[in-house]
Amino acid sequence: MAVTPDLRIGPDELPRCGWVGDDPEYRRYHDEEWGRPLHGDRPLFEKLSLEAFQSGLSWITILRRREGFRAAFDGFTIETVAAYDERDAQRLLLDERIIRNRAKIAATIANARVLHDWLQQEPGALDALVWSHAPAADSRSRPRTLAEVPATTERSTALARALKARGLRFVGPTTAYALMQSAGLVDDHVAGCWRAQG
Q1: Distance, CA of 2 to CA of 8 (rounded, Å)
Q2: 181: which residues sit within 8 A by CB, 6+ positions away?
């Protein structure tokens, strides 16, 4: 198999999507998480929150701080984060384990409040809403190159619109598409990657 910028051969001789690079944590994330179906309101809230924090940064920056984020945000337990007050916001702004962006911290807390109220009435509603935007498995062809992987799609735009209609913040079409990729709604492993399915 020819190595191209779109594929990278790891130390274990497995071909992976070229964005993985040489970082072992990135390889683990690519192999074990990215593109695998993720369900549940809490896990999707965590993923959506981290994707929002990633905006303007590389994903590896977030990945390396993920355990710090989990500790700082009480495991992204929606009920707990929804109860955060100004003291918690200030605590988070001083926490070096996370990305200390005031607007993103405020959005995460506000999103937890929206979700808490919504999910008390409709448990599982975030999961249902997100997954209702998954394209049919056979409706997309596998990207052959990284250049063929979109930043947004009509479905990610619709998902962003639906999340915003519920009152969520920092959920634009690009963030929504990154969520769709990482949570397995779409499979954007490039052709030749060992994780590519079909």
Answers
A1: 9
A2: 34, 35, 188
Q: Please name every residue paired with 16 in a beta bridge, in sequence order, or none if there are none.
A: 8
How far is it, in rounded angstroms, from Cα 147 to Cα 111? Answer: 32
User: Which residue bears the tokens 């990610």?
Assistant: 156
Burial class (CB in 10 A: 0-12, 13-18, 19+), 76: buried
Q: What is the pLDDT of residues 45-87, one digit of tens each?
A: 999 999 999 988 999 999 999 999 999 999 999 999 999 999 9
Token reading at 150: 């979109």
d(CA 158, CA 176): 9
How many angstroms separate the CA atoms of 189 and 198, rounded?
10
pTM here? 0.93
Is the Cβ–Cβ distance between 68 and 92 less than 8 Å?
no
The C-alpha atoms of residue 148 and residue 54 are separated, in whole angstroms, by 21
Enzyme catalytic residues: 29, 51, 59
